[in-house]
Amino acid sequence: MKRLLLACLLTLVAATSPVLGAERVVNIFNWSDYIDPSVLEDFTRETGIKVIYDTYDSNEMLEARLLAGDTGYDVVVPSATFLQRQIAAGVLQPIDRSKLVNARNVWPEIDSRLSRFDPGNRYAINYMWYTTGVAYDVAKVQERLGKPITSWDQVLRPENLKKLADCGVYMLDSPEDMFAIALNYLKLDPNSKNPKDLSRAASLLGSLRRYVKKFHSSEYINALANGDICVAIGWSGDSLQARNRAREAGTDVDIAYAIPTEGSLLSLDNLAIPKDARHLEEAYLFIDYLLRPDIAARNSIATNFANGVAPSRPLIDKAVANDPSVYPNDLTMRRLFTVAAPDQTVQKLITRMWTTVKTGR
Questions:
Q1: What is the CATH number of the domain that holds 235?
Q2: Are 38 and 242 in contact (CB under 8 A)?
Q3: How confident is the model at residue 33 (pLDDT cuts 50, 70, 90)?
């Protein structure tokens, strides 16, 4: 009888407890080229948790996975403009900051900006922030325009962009960025959801299509570094990665990055946990690890993106920490704007207009 009771107890324990020695994993879905690969290795070394790491290159791709459900991911990195819609759709779960020792390191200025999209900072915590601007080959632009790029006028006015078409122009395949920039350039509210305003922005962008080699949100990094193109409307960190890759390759390609004087978009990419995350404890450990100042500094150095961890800045190479393209000065910060996500009706309109911009149909 005692043997039978012991056997039953052992069976019950086996059924209700984790398998001893089972491998711990955390599944990450992040933007491409957006982390120091050695950070993933060190996380596994320090915690014993295996990292399964997949990448995407558009918010739309991430959102489609989240809305479809059963993502298989434990940590995702949505941009702030998509957060409101994802929170409303119930595809993200609240983050308990009391479980994150390093949440105290988050820069209040960035937390405050993020709260516009995530009231109370309940569902997301900042990973990186950046600007949208113009990356360009200094010599080729000087040859064609006679001066460096400082204004949106140089790339958003068709007669100016035409002068650059022969050396190759890329634009982001990101309607939220491109429409906001076009609206601001037209002296309209970059947050406007008015169909007439959006139509004006679409007309402007459509007038540039014939001079654009490709719309893509990541390929421009290598294209710039290799000298295959001379201009890209892109993100600050990616643009500076292109500059560094060109230097490391020992080429004569000199890449610069400009935040035009008319102002531009400030964007926030944030750590979040899907509603269906299966490895919750591991997700919290991974997020907390990324919020360590030394780890945040390594990721900023590797990617050239500014992070939201305030104590990390003294640990970042001065070449990055003091680069106004990465950490804009106060004057430039005042010219930066954020945009809120449109509702589904307006989003469908923007998506339709963007397809027309890219294809002419």
A1: 3.40.190.10
A2: no
A3: confident
Secondary structure of residue 193 in the 3-state scheme: coil
Q: Exposed, middle or buried by CB within 10 Å (0-12, 13-18, 19+), for 136? A: buried
Give me the domain span that covers residue 191: 130-265+339-359
- What's the confidence (pLDDT) of residue 320? 83
Ranges of H-type helices in the chain: 2-16, 37-47, 59-68, 80-88, 108-114, 138-145, 153-156, 158-161, 175-185, 195-206, 220-225, 236-248, 280-290, 293-303, 318-321, 330-334, 344-359
Helix axes 344-359, 195-206, angle to 10 degrees: 20
Give domain status of residue 16, yes or no. Answer: no
Q: Which two tokens stand for residue 330?
A: 């106060």
64 CB-contact burial (10 Å; exposed 0-12 / middle 13-18 / buried 19+): exposed
Q: Which amino acid would we find at residue 237? A: G
Residues counted in the chain: 361
Which residue, chain included where needed, has tokens 């996380």? 43
> Are residues 105 and 222 located together in one domain of the fold?
no
How confident is the model over 137-162, as pLDDT tens digits? 999 999 999 999 999 999 999 999 99
3-state helix/strand/coil string of 312-357: HHHHCCHHHHCCCCCCCCHHHHHCEECCCCCCHHHHHHHHHHHHHH
